[in-house]
Amino acid sequence: MPGDNRDVPDELTPREKARLRARDRKRATRMVVDNAGVKRTALALAARRAVPPAKDVETT
Question: What are the pLDDT digits (tens) for 10-24?
């Protein structure tokens, strides 16, 4: 539609904003190759996000 600026983040509905946030969270991390320390930290954070939290199991 002409004049429709739905791609502007300020004008998105709350539902569309939530969808975009969820999509961005699911995206893979970008590799940082310039700085070895930053790359290592980014990989560690990505690995931590990928592992589901351990479930507490009651033993009786």
Answer: 688 989 988 888 888
